[in-house]
Amino acid sequence: MRTLPTGQYIPGHSLLHKLDARVKILCLMLFIAAIIGAASIWGYTLVLVTIAGLILLSKLPIRSVVGSIRRMGLFLLVIFMMNALFFDQENPLASWWIFHLSSGGMKQGFSVVGNVVLILMLGNLLTMTTSPTQVTTALESLIKPLALIGVPTEEVAMIISVAIQFIPTLMAETESIKRAQLARGARFESKKLTERAASFIPLVVPIFISAIRRADELALAMEARGYRNAKNRTKRKKEPLVLHDYSALTISASICLIQFLLLR
Amino acid sequence: MSKMSSVKRSIITAVCIGLCVVLPMLFHSIPNGGTLFSPMHIPVLLSGLICGWPFGLLCGLAGPLLSSLITGMPPMAYLPSMMIELAVYGLVCGLMINLIRTKKLYADLYISLVVALIAGRIVAGIARALIFAPGSYSMAAWATGYFVATWPGMVIQLALIPTIVFALMKAKLIPQRYPAKG
Fold first, then answer.
1. In angstroms, how far is CA B52 from the centroid of its own chain?
2. Is A79 on the interface with B (CB under 8 A)?
3. Torsions phi, psi for A100 (to 5 deg)
4. A219 and A95 within one domain
5. Quick one: average pLDDT of A83-97?
6. What pLDDT shows up at residue B125?
């Protein structure tokens, strides 16, 4: 818990790192649509070739991109089994109680797990080539059209910025509360699962009290300095999209279109 | 519970979003701790109860998104359904606490929490069945995933959240819901 896992972001100078964060988020959504639309071997081949190309362009080690997938092995197995055992109850290969193993279910399970793995890899590529601040700024820009239906987008952006800045403070606070509870006999490293789980409960209330106290102090400080709302704030940096951003969007949209043409 | 300024409510929501990132890291040293104890749900439900439904809705949407971007939990593939579930928790919790006035703090809190937890699970199940896994999501899978596997988390939420709200009121960090007369 001591180090913040912002090690998710790996600084670099690849083409993927240079792309605008807004473009990367939009391309991610297009690729997710392409993955969900993949229904044939050609569709999946197109997606796999695209992801392989993106990994090469990012110059990131493959182990870091697929690392989180290995950790989720058990979870993916559960997803596969739930599909295999509950999907098709009318033509089962084998049945016991409420469980019905079917070939259709197993096919569906492979498809779902495959889609999850591909989307995970794309998500990892986004988070590893884009810092959380860049993502927040991009999201703030992308949600601006919601202002037309009355959503206070500036306030939302302010709240998310403050949340990101609070994370290291909350982690340090959590660590000091954990040490205080250890001194009082809490057993966080106990081999007994129930004992270990029970020892975390007394952490939660002090963490919330301390966090809300900090929020109260910050709000008072902001109001004392005349802050009332986030409207009419301006930014120093304004970065327009460039050629490689438009190219990335065009290529992503084309892949999505090819995938839906293949569906027909 | 809604006599706070909008600045204070915004900052409390920001802190709750930050806790959506920090709390799951705390529970992940326990095997399967995230699924069993659902630590991300606590700040979302709290922000709905304390700050109102718009802030609860924002916390439910932004909390899992930020946590996924910064720590990788929840995985991107499960992020949309989790965002929907938590958004409904924050929204319904905030709406219920405004509507229900039994003159008893704990009754208001428990009714709001139970309705929010059930509504969130129903909407998330519908979203999975119609959008994220159409044709492959059964009632049995929904019941197992949202009730059987997560009952310890529900018990912890129902026990801890009213305790936290009471402690915050006692520390005068949030206004009393039913101020004592005289």
1. 12
2. no
3. -130, 105
4. no
5. 73
6. 85
Mean pLDDT for B28-45 is: 75
Number of folded domains in chain B?
1
pLDDT at position A236 is 59
DSSP A11-52: ---SHHHHS-HHHHHHHHHHHHHHHHH--SHHHHHHHHHHHH
Q: Is A3 exposed, middle or buried (0-12, 13-18, 19+ CB in 10 A)?
A: exposed
Across A20-158, the runs of DSSP E, i.e. the strands, are 94-96, 99-101
| Contact yes or no for A167 and B22 at CB 8 A | yes
Query: Which range marks the domain in which residue B83 is found?
Result: 6-170
Assess whether A162 and A38 both reside in one domain.
no
Map residue B3 onto helix, strand or coil: coil
Kindly list the residues from chain B whose CB atom is less than 8 angstroms away from the CB atom of residue A2.
none
Count helices and strands in chain A by DSSP H and E runs: 10, 2
The answer to whether position A1 is within a domain reads no
**What is the arithmetic mean of pLDDT over B97-110?**
91
The pLDDT confidence band at residue A1, using thresholds 50, 70 and 90, is very low
Count Cα atoms within 13 angstroms, Cβ side, for A121: 24
Nearest residue to A132 (alpha-carbon basis) of A107, A166, A101, A84: A166
Pair A10, A109 in one domain = yes
CATH number assigned to the domain comprising residue B129: 1.10.1760.20
Give B124's contacts (C-beta < 8 A, 6+ positions apart).
B81, B82, B84, B85, B88, B146
Domain count for chain A, please give it: 2
User: How far lies A205's CA from each of A49, A56, A253, A254, B28, in Å?
Assistant: 49, 46, 48, 51, 18
Which residues of chain A lie closer than 8 angstroms to B168, CB-CB?
Answer: 208-209, 212
Q: Give residue-wise pLDDT tens across range A229-252.
A: 666 666 656 678 888 888 999 999
Residue A30 lies in a domain: yes
Has residue A142 been placed in a domain?
no
Q: How confident is the model at residue A73 (pLDDT cuts 50, 70, 90)?
A: confident
Q: Would you call A203 and B26 a contact, using CB atoms and an 8 Å cutoff? A: yes
- In chain A, which residues have their Cβ closer than 8 Å to the Cβ of B7? 219, 222-223, 227-229
Nearest CA in chain B to A223: B7
Range of the structural domain that residue A199 is part of = 153-224
Reported as a pLDDT band with limits 50, 70 and 90, residue A213 is very high
